[in-house]
Amino acid sequence: MNKKIMAIAIAILLSSLGIATIALAQQGQGSVGETIAEIVPIPVESKYPKVTVVYGVGLNKDDMNTEPVVFLEIKYNEVTAQVIEILPGDVDRDCDVDSDDIKLLLDSYGKSSGDPGYNPNADFDHDGRVDLDDLLILIKNYGKKCPIKPIPYVPVTKYYLIVDGDIYRMRKTYERYDSDTRTKIYQFKANDGGIMTAIVQHYSNEIKSISAEFKNYLITFEPVYKYGTKITGTEPFPLSGQIEKISEEIGVNIQEMQTGQTAEWLE
Q: Which residues of 217-238 are buried (b: 16+ CB within 10 A; e: fewer)?
């Protein structure tokens, strides 16, 4: 019997029964090739991060002029992402193996890689050809739904520094707490290689003062209360354009948000 006719006959029988017959997967010539399930991540719904904005002033040691400075911490909450495991046989990638997949496979039946109409999603054993072996693999999984597995999503924290109108993407490289002086010392590395060293002084009334040095700037930030400050539409320095650029990059309108607790690096 012609292989395609045989395949169509099996498909029609399978569709009419509406079940998967494992015995069919053991018929035909040779053994069904080994298949590997395809792992596809499900995009995690965007979560609003915690945003802390600290305003300050930088003194340029070269010309003794002052410039507005803004430091931002954008901390994304820890969430659980998911992945789906695409079953061999799920041609249309809708997370189940059904008659729609049979129709799509038959449309590509007998075709090889490079042929018009060849569908790589129907080539489950990845041998470059859609044939009886692939149909038998589909039949084996007919009626099944793909499993969905949770995976941990590592929280991401992004840091930005705006000095003299320039935006720097920062990466924290060092931190240390000195219990004798109640201070925290941090270092951040900018995307251009510049290093910012910051010192956070803790006071008994939960106020924290922050000073830093970055390139040729000495920086002092406004005092920060333990529970953070509210971000309002009124900005003390003319850096709204730069903050809008960062907002576009992270997909969050920073100036409309309100901070929660003080950022981790200030605690």
A: bebebeebeeebbebeeeeeee
The pLDDT score that the predictor gives to residue 101 is: 92
Is residue 83 exposed (0-12), middle (13-18) or buried (19+ Cβ within 10 Å)?
A: middle
65: three-class secondary structure by DSSP:
coil
The sign of the CA dihedral 90, 96, 101, 102 is positive
Cα separation, 16 vs 40, in Å, equals 31
- Ranges of the chain with pLDDT below 70: 1-48, 77-84, 148-155, 204-206, 224-239, 251-267
| Residues pairing with 46 in the sheet | none
**pLDDT of 32-51, one tens digit each?**
344 445 555 554 544 567 77
Q: Give residue limits of the domains in the chain.
A: 3-31+88-145, 50-80+153-266
Asked if 161 and 70 count as a contact pair (C-beta separation under 8 A), the reply is yes
Q: Domain spanning 3-31+88-145: which superfamily?
A: Dockerin domain (1.10.1330.10)
Rg, C-alpha atoms of the chain: 30
Model pLDDT, residue 76: 73
For residues 59 and 79, give the distance between their C-alpha atoms in angstroms, rounded to a whole number: 40
For residue 191, the SS3 value is coil
**What's the rounded Cα separation, in Å, for the pair 239 and 163?**
9
pLDDT value of position 94: 84
Q: Containing H/E element for 250?
A: helix 240-250
pLDDT at 264: 41
pLDDT of residue 256: 60
Record the tokens describing residue 82, joined without a space: 């998911």
Q: Which of 183, 175, 231 is nearest to 208 (CA)?
A: 183
